[in-house]
Design a protein that fits this description.
One of its GO terms (biological process) is base-excision repair. The chain is an alpha+beta fold. The protein has twelve helices and 15 strands.
C-alpha cells in the first residue's frame, strides 16, 4: 500500500522561509504542500517553482492598491505538488477568489480528489470573511458531486471550544456552520492528531486545518502538527502533515538507465521494425478504449509501457557524455569532421609544408574555418548564459546560483568555505551559523571593568573639574568667555 502525504503551512513570507520550507519538503517527503501567506507580488510568483527541485506549483497573489509601494506583497496562496505524481493533475481555474487555489488529482483507486488551498481573511471584518467562505462553500458543493474534497490552509478561525477567548467568535461561528453543514472532520474533533493542540503559536489557537470528509478519514494513516523546534521555522504557525493511504503507488518509477534511446541514429529498417512491434499491442489497446468502463489513466499507462517496450527492442542506444561541450552544435561538428578529413588527406600526402601544396593549403583553410565557427558558437553560448544569469538574478535566485556554480571553472579562486575558530564551514547552514556567531560576539559589550580604564579615569577627572567650576560663584566653564569680536571668525570656521 502506498500513501499520499499532504502538508499545510502558513509561511508568513516565503522570502524569509525558503530554506525552512525546502528542508521541510525534503524531510517529510510530502507529495502536496499548501502554502498560505507567501507575500509575493504577481510578477514574482514563479519564484515558488524554484524553491525545491521536483515540485510544480499553482499559485495566486492578492491584488494590491495603487498606493501600495512595499517591496513585498500581501497574503497569497499556493499549492506545490511533486512532478513525479503519475496521476492526471489539473489546476482548477474557476475558484473566483484570490485567496483560494484548487487542484484535481485523478487516482485509480479513489477517483478524483479535489484539494483546495485557502487563506481566509485575517482582518476583523466578518463580511469579508463570510464572502470568501461562501465561495469556498460553493466550490465544495459543486466538486463534491464528482469526487472527494479536501480543504487545507490558514482559515483564520477556530472550530474548537478552547479557542473562543483568543479568536474572533463571529468568524469562528461561520466556520463551524460550514464544517457542520458538510460534516467535515478536523483535528481536535474526530481526527486525533500527534503534537500540540494549536497551530498559531502567538495565541496557542488552532486556525490551520486540513478538513476532510468521512470517506477520506477512513483512509487517513496519520495526522500530525509538527511541534516547535522539530523543524527550522521562521513562521509563527506550525506545519500540519497528513498521510492518506492509496492502493496504487502515486509516483512514477524513474528510469536510471545509463543507455538512452538514440533516435537520431535510427535507420529506415529499424523504424519499420518499430512499427511492427507497435501494431498488435496498439490494436488491443484501441479495443479497450471502445469499452464504456475504460479508465483513461490505465490506458495512458498501458500505452507508455507499449511504446517503451517497442523502443527498447528496436531503437539503438547511446550513453550520456557529461563532458560534451555545450556550445558544440551541429555546425561546429560538421566543420570539425571536415577539418579531420582534410588533415588525414594531408597526412597521406606525406605532410608537405607550404601553400603551394594543395593538401596542406586545404587542411589549413579548413582548420581556420573550424576555429572561427567554434569561436562564434562559444561566444553565442556565453552570451546566452550571461543573459540567463542576469534574468535569474532578478526573479529566480536558486537558478542564479545553479548557473553560477555550473560555469565556475575548476581553477576558480572562489572557495565555498570559511574558517572560524579553526573550524572549516563549507555548507550554507554552517556558514550562516559562523556569521551569526561572529556578529553575536561583535554585539556583546565587554564586561571587563578594567577595559580602557585610563580613558575612563581621565573623563571622570575632567567631569569633576567642570562640576567644581560650575559650583563656584562667578566662575565660567573651561575654555573661557568667547569675545564678541571672535564670533564672526568662529562662524566662518
Amino acid at each position: 500500500m502506498s500513501s499520499l502525504k499532504l502538508l499545510a503551512w502558513n509561511v508568513r513570507g516565503i522570502m524569509s522561509s525558503t530554506v525552512c520550507l525546502s528542508n521541510l519538503l525534503r524531510s517529510t517527503d510530502c507529495d502536496v504542500c499548501i502554502i498560505s501567506e507567501h507575500k509575493l507580488k504577481t510578477r514574482s510568483l514563479n519564484y515558488l517553482s524554484s524553491i525545491e527541485q521536483g515540485y510544480n506549483c499553482v499559485c495566486k497573489a492578492d491584488s494590491l492598491p495603487n498606493f501600495y509601494n512595499a517591496y513585498h506583497g500581501k497574503g497569497g496562496i499556493a499549492i506545490l505538488y511533486k512532478s513525479t505524481l503519475q496521476f492526471s493533475i489539473n489546476e482548477i481555474h474557476d475558484t473566483n477568489s484570490e485567496r483560494i487555489v484548487g487542484l484535481e488529482i485523478k487516482t485509480p483507486s479513489k477517483g478524483s480528489l479535489f484539494i483546495f488551498g485557502a487563506y481566509l481573511p485575517s482582518d476583523e471584518s466578518v463580511d469579508n470573511y463570510r464572502t470568501e467562505l461562501n465561495i469556498l462553500d460553493a466550490l465544495y458543493t459543486h466538486y463534491s458531486n464528482y469526487g472527494n474534497v479536501i480543504i487545507a490552509g490558514d482559515l483564520n478561525a477556530s472550530c474548537l471550544e478552547k479557542d473562543k477567548l483568543c479568536s474572533n467568535k463571529y468568524k469562528s461561528a461561520e466556520l463551524i456552520k460550514f464544517v457542520k453543514r458538510y460534516q467535515l472532520l478536523f483535528s481536535g474533533g474526530k481526527i486525533k492528531h500527534k503534537g500540540p493542540d494549536y497551530t498559531f503559536i502567538n495565541k496557542t489557537s488552532m486556525i490551520d486545518y486540513i478538513l476532510m470528509n468521512d470517506s477520506i478519514y477512513r483512509q487517513l494513516k496519520s495526522y500530525e502538527i509538527l511541534s516547535e523546534g522539530s523543524v527550522s521555522s521562521t513562521s509563527d504557525h506550525l506545519p500540519i502533515l497528513a498521510e492518506i493511504v492509496l492502493q496504487h503507488n502515486p509516483h512514477k518509477i524513474l528510469n536510471s538507465f545509463s543507455k538512452l534511446p538514440a533516435w537520431h541514429k535510427i535507420t529506415d529498417d529499424q523504424i519499420e521494425l518499430y512499427k511492427q512491434f507497435l501494431h498488435e499491442p496498439l490494436q488491443i489497446l484501441i479495443k479497450k478504449m471502445d469499452s464504456d468502463n475504460a479508465d483513461i489513466d490505465t490506458l495512458y499507462n498501458d500505452m507508455v509501457t507499449i511504446l517503451h517496450a517497442a523502443a527498447d527492442k528496436t531503437v539503438p542506444k547511446c550513453s550520456f557524455n557529461p563532458f560534451t561541450k555545450p556550445y558544440w552544435t551541429s555546425g561546429v561538428k560538421i566543420a570539425h569532421e571536415k577539418e579531420r578529413t582534410l588533415r588525414k588527406a594531408w597526412v597521406i600526402d606525406g605532410r608537405p609544408r607550404g601553400m603551394h601544396y594543395d593538401s596542406y593549403k586545404l587542411y589549413k583553410k579548413s582548420k581556420n574555418e573550424f576555429r572561427n565557427i567554434q569561436q562564434a558558437a562559444y561566444e553565442q553560448y556565453i552570451q546566452q548564459t550571461n543573459d540567463d544569469i542576469n534574468k535569474a538574478a532578478e526573479c529566480d535566485i536558486r537558478l542564479f546560483w545553479k548557473l553560477i556554480k555550473r560555469n565556475k571553472t575548476v581553477s576558480s579562486k572562489i572557495y565555498p568555505e570559511i574558517i572560524q575558530d579553526d573550524n572549516i564551514c563549507n555548507t550554507p547552514e554552517s556558514i550562516a551559523n559562523a556569521f551569526m556567531d561572529y556578529f553575536s560576539k561583535l554585539y556583546q559589550p565587554d564586561s571587563d571593568e578594567m577595559y580602557d580604564n585610563d580613558t575612563r579615569q581621565q573623563i571622570e577627572l575632567d567631569y569633576n573639574k567642570i562640576l567644581k567650576s560650575c559650583y563656584e560663584q562667578n566662575a565660567y566653564l573651561p575654555g573661557g568667555i568667547i569675545k564678541e569680536s571672535e564670533v564672526d571668525g568662529i562662524i566662518k570656521l
